[in-house]
Amino acid sequence: MSKTSLLSLGVSLLSLSLVACGGDGRRRPGGRSGSDAGDGTGSDAAPRPGYDAGPGFDGGPVDMCNPACGPIEICGSDGSGDGNDDNCNGTVDEGCICGNIGETRSCFRGPPDRRDVGSCADGIMTCTEFGTWGACIDGQFPEDETCDGADNDCNGVADDGLSDCSTAVICPGTQGATPLNFYDLRGETIYTGAARSWQWNVSCPPTVSPCPAPEAPTAKDTRIFFAQSGSYRVGLAVVTDTGETVGCEWVVEVEGAGLRVELLWDTQGTANGDTDVDLHLHRKSVGVGVATGETAFFTKDDCYFGNCKASSYADALRTAWAMEDTTDLNACREAPHGEGAQWVSKSACYNPRLDVDVVRCTSGETDPANGAFCAPENINVDNPTLGVPFRIMVNYYSNGRDPLGGGGGVDQTHPQVNIYCGGELRAAFGSDPLVTLRNGAEFGAANDNWMVADVVFFRNECGGLDCLINPIPSDPRQGCEAGSAACIVRGADFGPPWSF
Predict the structure, then answer these.
(1) What is the full DSSP assignment across 117-185?
(2) Residue 319: in which H helix or E strand, if any?
(3) Run of H or E residues at 265
(4) Contact (Cβ atoms closer than 8 angstroms) between residue 316 and residue 300
(5) Closest CA to 259 of 392, 126, 82
(6) Which H or E element spans position 320?
(7) Does the N-terminal or the C-terminal CB of the chain have fewer CB atoms within 10 Å?
């Protein structure tokens, strides 16, 4: 049975309401609705030793849209903080609260006015079981200058304050890239002298699997394909003609625009069962304030494999969603399995779009143009309509068995869904608690469907694009399977009512 002959599904998960602060395209929190900063009194905290506190640390009002070191930590009217170390004591959002496990937030452990400057890059913090934020980790924060051509202390000037600094190394600051694209690595832009050897390396955030490698890691010039969003560290070690080893490391922020949802699962690829798990995104078609009566999945209101890929984009979907195209083809031209070429032939990246539908793939294949390349399924809406919710769903379409007989197949799989708003990871669902999907004797909607979350976008008070994410709770009264940590349903119906 082919995929296009299927019906639909629904899906749901735990319970959390996430307010995403930030969203100006770079990882700087825009203002939250309200602030408990008041007139700046109530704390005698001093700046972190060694930091220039910068403007604003004078006991005066705090500008939520242009943060700098101040006397108190800002938790805002909802109490969840702003991802900054507002009082510059080395800890981010201490004393602030968060929703549930699975909520994440970009954060910066340094003076707020040095965020996104020079070599500095955001880290990430996760909501703990105690309802407070964990440590801000995996970022690049201000440190003492070294003679490497980089702005290590993130004050806007490289190698300042150093005497007799002369180096052939020009280390780049934090750079940006687009998911599902190649990122060029050019040795001569980093080291200008003669060299005996070159060695490139990359390390990946925990949400990325497998971690990509440069195509030719010992070449002077090479490139790397970033299939997933995230904050990567790229490094180069050079052995000079005198035998000295020099080099540097920098952060590459791989970010999409608007809404980007990425799906991974542990049984993808020939080495793991070669199962087929599908990502769906349903728009709200019923009126404002209406929560029930929504259309089913696998219809024109649902972006999925049957109507949302470049190679099979449906006019009915395009008419129903009526969204503006993305004319910058860098957003989709390198989509795997030949889908990128299909977008190029359309002269635009449509919204919404499913970049690739991975039915089967070969574990270890590294060429994204090869039809056997294993990639995360991802759906993009580069320009989400403000105030119009979306629902994310995952369907265990096929367990990898031979449809003509012969046995095989994997009965269970464990999906992971990462939700990005304006390039920032706002939620990661599927691992805590672990979500298990089962495959029955059929294909598609008759198997387990996980209703993950509802998402809606808005403009915050600083003008940045922001989002709210509501995970869908596992409620048997709303048709979710009893005893499951996530909202699991079978069949094409929409599932529980809208939460927005």
Answers:
(1) STT-B-EEEEB-TTSBB---BS-B------SSSS-TT-SS-TTTT-SS---SB-----EEE-SSEEEEE
(2) helix 315-321
(3) strand 259-265
(4) yes
(5) 392
(6) helix 315-321
(7) N
Closest C-alpha to 471, from 423, 428, 420, 436: 428
Q: Is 307 helix (H, G, I), strand (E, B) or coil?
A: coil
Could you give the CA distance from residue 145 to residue 307 in angstroms, rounded to a whole number?
A: 52
Give the helix/strand (H/E) hosting 316: helix 315-321
User: In terms of C-beta density within 10 A (0-12 exposed, 13-18 middle, 19 or more buried), how is residue 286 classed?
Assistant: middle
Residue 313 backbone phi and psi in degrees, to 5: -70, 130
- The DSSP string of 337-387 is TTHHHHHHHHTSB-SSEE----SS--TT---TTSTT----EEEEESSPPTT
Within 10 Å of residue 189's Cβ, how many Cβ atoms? 12
What count of other Cβ atoms lies within 10 Å of the Cβ of residue 277? Answer: 26
In the numeric block, the tokens 């080099």 are attached to 247
Residue carrying structure tokens 């997933």: 228
All residues at 6 or more sequence positions from 250 whose CB lies less than 8 Å from its CB, including other chains: 119, 140, 150, 171, 172, 173, 174, 175, 233, 234, 235
CB 137 within 8 Å of CB 78: no
Q: Report pLDDT digits (tens) over 251-269.
A: 999 999 999 999 999 999 9
| Global pTM value | 0.84
Dump pLDDT digits (tens) for 403-453. Answer: 544 445 788 999 999 999 999 999 999 988 899 999 866 788 889 999 999
If you count them, how many residues does the chain have? 500
Letter for the amino acid at 482?
A: A
The dihedral region occupied by 241, where left means phi > 0, alpha psi between -120 and 50, and beta the remainder, is alpha
The vertex-25 CA angle with 21 and 31, nearest 5°, equals 30
For residue 61, count other CB atoms closer than 10 A to its CB: 13
Please return the burial class of 293, using the count of CB atoms within 10 Å of its CB with bins 0-12, 13-18 and 19+.
exposed
Residue 199 contacts residue 187 (beta carbons within 8 Å): no
Between the alpha carbon of residue 157 and those of residues 27, 145, 162, 406, the distances in Å are 21, 10, 11, 65
pLDDT digits (tens, 9 = 90+) for 316-335: 999 999 999 999 999 999 99
Residue 317, helix vs strand vs coil: helix
User: What are the tokens at 443?
Assistant: 């294909």
CATH 2.60.40.1120 fits 175-254, yes or no: no
